[in-house]
Automatic annotation (TrEMBL):
UniProt-listed Pfam families: Phosphorylase
EC assignment: 2.4.1.1
Family statement drawn from the similarity comment of this UniProt entry: Belongs to the glycogen phosphorylase family.
Statement: the UniProt record of this protein carries the keyword Transferase: yes
Name this polypeptide is given: Alpha-1,4 glucan phosphorylase
An annotated Gene Ontology molecular function: pyridoxal phosphate binding
Coiled-coil residue windows: none
This protein's GO CC annotations: cytoplasm
Biological function: Allosteric enzyme that catalyzes the rate-limiting step in glycogen catabolism, the phosphorolytic cleavage of glycogen to produce glucose-1-phosphate, and plays a central role in maintaining cellular and organismal glucose homeostasis.
Domain of life: Eukaryota
InterPro entries cross-referenced by the UniProt entry: Glyco_trans_35
One annotated GO biological process: glycogen catabolic process
Catalytic activity, reaction form: [(1->4)-alpha-D-glucosyl](n) + phosphate = [(1->4)-alpha-D-glucosyl](n-1) + alpha-D-glucose 1-phosphate
Organism: Aegilops tauschii subsp. strangulata (Goatgrass)
Amino acid sequence: LRWNDTYLHFHKTDPKQTYYLSMEYLQGRALTNAVGNLAITGAYADALKKFGYELEAIAGEERDAALGNGGLGRLASCFLDSMATLNLPSWGYGLRYRYGLFKQRIAKEGQEEIAEDWLDKFSPWEIVRHDVVYPIRFFGHVEISPDGKRKWAGGEVLNALAYDVPIPGYKTKNAISLRLWDATATAEDFNLFQFNDGQYESAAQLHSRAQQICAVLYPGDATEEGKLLRLKQQYFLCSASLQDIIFRFKERKSDRASGKWSEFPSKVAVQMNDTHPTLAIPELMRLLMDVEGLGWDEAWAVTNKTVAYTNHTVLPEALEKWSQAVMRKLLPRHMEIIEEIDKRVTVKPHLLFRYTTVMAQTDKVVPFACSLGKW
């Protein structure tokens, strides 16, 4: 009830909302967190005892949500808890990994790592949103119309399906959302004739590629296929989240559907947690220009005031870089936009590693977060 009330309240009041994009969330167990934030731990434990159960035993049955495995994910989850507790209008976005964690066991040969299947039964804390689905394109080419407008076409298109997880605040009615994206393909993408002809793998190629995107957190990137999969994951998160953010911006006031993009930065703050979601910058530019029809200058002004970046390290091995070949192959339109940003924006050295706060209250942004010009 509080979850729905929170959404309706922010929908009606239309405040500036923070959207936190992170590849990891290390949530911990939701049951004890929820009853603790509601300040009913004692009462809940007493109620369970009447049925012959101990709270610790029940809590121990819950699987950790395998959405992260380190400090980056724990920090992201702490931020969501804090924002909910402070009654701030905010929302988290991530990926719904099937095997985001691993478990260890000792065998004769030594330590082994195997996948942790936290979804082998189901997660009681998530709600699948079949009404929230966005198309995500990969590969393809850029088409130029007679009037000079550019459009990304061809390639393969998967769907991003939303799963919502409640994040309750501590001793407050505010309950915000963590929206997780899962990759799916449609029935039309399954070739029934090939399957009946015995070509089983070919018949379900797109379904197989969809399952790969959210299968594992940080897949190995020693091969080009591994690099492509990692880049797919990051773009999948950015594109689905930004499409959702733009939809909500329009939904809250009907007159925005026809314009008023100058209002966007006053209503939306997109916070990128480390380098993984930095494709949010060229993707927002693409959506504003190619889909919404804005010119470069207007789109850049909106993007520059909307997106902020949290830097976690200055070590070069931790700052991601992508080869132009991989980027151009998977995201040809974005490579064009990145090259144009590189031409138009001069990054001052003292701004390269500038820190921004998670709440993104300022209108400043580090242009493309340390990666600009390093492809």
